[in-house]
Amino acid sequence: MAMTLHVDIVSAEAEIFSGTATMIFAPAEMGEVGIAPRHAPLLTRLKPGEVRVQTQEGEELSFFVSGGILEIQPHVVTVLSDTAIRADDLDEAQALEARERAEKMLADKTADIDYAKAQAELAQSMAQLAAIKKLRDRR
Amino acid sequence: MAGAKEIRTKIASIKNTQKITKAMEMVAASKMRKAQERMLATRPYADKIQNVVAHVSHAHPEYHHPYLVEREAQRVGLIIISTDRGLCGGLNINLFKSVINAMKEWDDAGLEIDLTLIGTKSNAFFKRLSGNITATATHLGDAPSIIELIGTVKVMLDAYEEGKIDRLCLAHNVFENTMSQNPVIRQLIPVAGEADEQLKTHWDYIYEPESKLVMDALMIRYIESLVYQGVVENVACEQAARMVAMKSATDNAGDLIDELQLIYNKARQAAITQEISEIVSGAAAV
Q1: Cα B27–Cα B28–Cα B33 angle in degrees, nearest 5
Q2: Contact B227, B147 (CB under 8 A)
Q3: How many angstroms separate the Cα of B267 from the Cα of each of A58, A139, B253, B276?
Q4: Which of B137, B145, B206 lies at the smallest CB-CB distance from A42?
Q5: Which of A124, B71, B188, B192 is 20 to 30 A removed from B20 (C-alpha atoms)?
Q6: Which residues of B touch A96 (CB under 8 A)?
Q7: Considering the domain A91-138, what is its CATH architecture?
Q8: pLDDT tens, B16-74?
């Protein structure tokens, strides 16, 4: 029997593939790697590209990953795939956006006042309604 | 006939409300199922990355990642995950209560607090409280994607790396089952390394390109996946809580209608009796 590897390809949002394979190829950052069973433990980043899995039946399945991390143990290979396209400056832009949202929310005092005012008015008219109801019941 | 018509209009209006709450209950039930599936779909990734991180934190590589190193806390970062919409019972309030208790404890211990808020409800609530809000994210919807969280989480991770905060915690609701959701606050960074007895033999990965770069990428994804899981779980909690709240609202409306119906029947009966006695006494007078 040919030696096999267990392969898991997962992304943060879903499981993409899980099964056995005789060989897998992945676009590692330092160049494409081919992994046969009993490969030494390795941890590396992936570039966007194609992960190919050769199954026991000789089929070749291919999956696209937009980057991620590849973990290799002698009989288990795990592809932690990214769903998002990542780049340092892109991440930075998103962080900036999140920070701006917070500032904007804090600066948005008018909305808060309007809300508080509306709430006060609501409480007042509720009290009025309750008073009217009480008067009516008494009659 | 006193108020029979008024009672009838009141019954009609409660019936309308009941229809709405009933519809919301059913919508929440179907959304909850989907949210639960989504929650399960995130598990494999989280488990796998957790395994890798657990191993790496024990493997003693030449480079110790800052997220693995415990340092004395002076300032705590807290990510709070709430819902975007209301009408979900005490879900948010329970969470905020436990957050406020934790914040008070930290405050008493002389720690300062930075907040990152996810969800409009937490924005509205913590805006009025003292506390430094560094980033927010809202309107993630029922199917949140991790892309929308990257920036928000990065703000806190940057703060940690720059030494602005010395600890990062996450507050969200945990989905126990449909009837119960519990607020939890757990520590994200420093990564709590569980002592794993199985890892007696020391082996380490080969790192490509070098351990620092790989570890950075790994740790960022690990924290993001934890936050993302929290968000997805919170969506399931929201739908479950809403379903239960709407169910009890529908039941209450039913009780109210029954009660009013009884009052209405009595009023109607009284009016008829009165009319008959008027006719009878009128006929007798003729």
Answers
A1: 105
A2: no
A3: 83, 18, 21, 14
A4: B206
A5: A124
A6: 151
A7: Up-down Bundle (1.20)
A8: 999 999 999 999 999 999 999 999 999 889 888 988 888 787 776 677 788 888 888 88
Which amino acid belongs to residue B73?
A
Q: Which of B127, B128, B145 sits opposite A13 (nearest CB)?
A: B145
Of the candidates B88, B99, B227, B236, the residue annotated as catalytic is B88
Question: What is the distance in angstroms between the Cα of A56 and the nearest Cα belonging to chain B?
Answer: 23
Question: Which neighbouring-strand residues pair with A80?
Answer: A10, A69
| ipTM passes above 0.85 | no
pTM assigned to the model: 0.83
Task: Give the bridge partners for A18, in sequence order.
Answer: A8
Residue ranges of alpha helices (H) inside chain B are 4-41, 43-58, 91-108, 120-126, 147-161, 211-285
| Tens-digit pLDDT profile for residues B88-109 | 889 999 999 999 999 999 999 9
C-alpha A14/C-alpha B182 separation (Å) is: 25
> Minimal CA–CA distance to A51: which of A40, A75, A36, A67?
A67
Alpha helix segments (H runs only) across B88-210: 91-108, 120-126, 147-161
Spans of all domains in chain A: 5-86, 91-138
What's the Rg (C-alpha) of chain A?
Answer: 29
Is the domain covering A5-86 a CATH 2.60.15.10 domain? yes
